[in-house]
Amino acid sequence: MAYQTLIVEIEDNVALIRLNRPEALNALNSVLLGELADALKSADGNDKVRCVVITGSEKAFAAGADIKEMSSKTYVEMFGTNFFGTEPDSIGRTRKPIIAAVAGYALGGGCELAMMCDFIICADNAKFGQPEINLGIIAGIGGTQRLTRFVGKSKAMDMHLTGRFMDAAEAERSGLVSRVVPLAQLMPEAMAAAQKIAAKSQISVMAAKECVDRAYETTLNEGVLFERRLFHSMFATEDQKEGMAAFLEKREPQFRDK
Ligand code: CAA
């Protein structure tokens, strides 16, 4: 499907979704968020897709929610339409793994979108921030909650209250991103990671994703129990038999998602 604000390519079982509003540094307007939710839904339902990568341009992953679109809105419009209440939730419901490949600015809603992905690989020019405070507002797509869980209260407060940006080295140090690579290596690195995931059993990939996500929603004991039960359930799959047989026979496994 052709989108106005996205370029979507599927190659080697990976859906690459590129945010494409260069004139606004990929600011997240309603059209883009709707199209992104749609692209993720169709990737989730497409048997050829086993992992998703979301990226932007070299200058900006996304510079935030679209300020021009929001500037004249009233409280009644924001609350009445549950602004940002629908599309971001549907992004979070995607069952297949999503990697954010971030170069340049990931600010406000852009930082929040990256944090909604399963993990973030960033280029050495990346800058993360929640500068909404400079606009007389606060984050609205989960930034106060997710950033705090990822980097801790002190740094999250610092970012949200001062609006300062965090560079790639600080983002890696604080656990916001999983890897930092030179800008030229960003897409090869992200696509290689996605292809590595795509080669696993999709059943165990989705189970692992659900378990890690559960860590943010529950107590340690409940999370460990949830993990153990899903671990037990893996033994009902053919892929468990194949994975372990391949190890013992010293060959590569051929997973069939069964
Ligand atoms: N919304 C709409 N347009 C944006 C935008 C945004 N968030 N960010 C950048 N743009 C537009 C600019 O208006 C400009 O357009 P024009 O050429 O038509 O004027 C174009 O993108 C290029 O931007 P700049 O000229 O500002 O580029 P720069 O290199 O000088 O600065 C920047 C880059 C530091 C990212 C700067 O653009 C900036 O500060 N952007 C806003 C960042 C921000 O405040 N984000 C939070 C938004 S609110 C939010 O996200 C709420 C939420 O949590 C849901």
What would you say this structure looks like, in words?
- There is one protein chain.
- Helices cover 45% and strands 16% of the residues.
- 36% of the residues are buried.
- With 258 residues, it is an alpha/beta fold.
- It has helices spanning 30-44, 67-70, 75-80, 87-92, 109-116, 143-151, 153-162, 168-173, 186-198, 202-214, 220-233, 238-248; strands spanning 6-11, 14-19, 51-55, 60-62, 98-102, 105-107, 119-123, 127-129, 165-167, 179-181.
- The protein has a 6-stranded mixed beta sheet, with helices on both faces. Strands 4-6-8-9 form a 4-stranded mixed beta sheet.
- α6 (143-151) packs across α7 and α10 (202-214) runs antiparallel to α11 (220-233).
- Acetoacetyl-coenzyme A is lined by residues 24-25, 27, 63-68, 84, 105, 107-109, 112, 131-132, 135, 139-141, 143.
**How are the strands of the biggest sheet laid out side by side?**
1-2-3-5-7-10
The shape, in one word, is globular
Rg calculated over all Cα atoms: 19 Å
* Helix content, binned percent: 40-55%
Given helix and strand content, the structural type is alpha/beta
Give the strand tally: 10
Query: How would you spell out the order of helices and strands?
Result: EEHEEHHHEEHEEHHEHEHHHH
> Which small compounds were modeled alongside the protein?
acetoacetyl-coenzyme A
> Which strand-content bin applies to the residues?
15-25%
Give the overall average pLDDT: 96
Instruction: Report how far the terminal alpha carbons are from each other.
Output: 29 Å
| Helix count, DSSP H or I runs of 4 or more residues | 12
CATH topology of the largest domain, which one? Answer: 2-enoyl-CoA Hydratase, Chain A, domain 1
Summed up, the domain count is: 2
Which CATH top level class of the largest domain fits?
Answer: Alpha Beta
The largest β sheet comes out as: 6 strands, mixed
Low-confidence stretches: none
Q: What's the name of the CATH homologous superfamily of the largest domain?
A: 2-enoyl-CoA Hydratase, Chain A, domain 1
CATH architecture identity of the largest domain: Alpha-Beta Complex
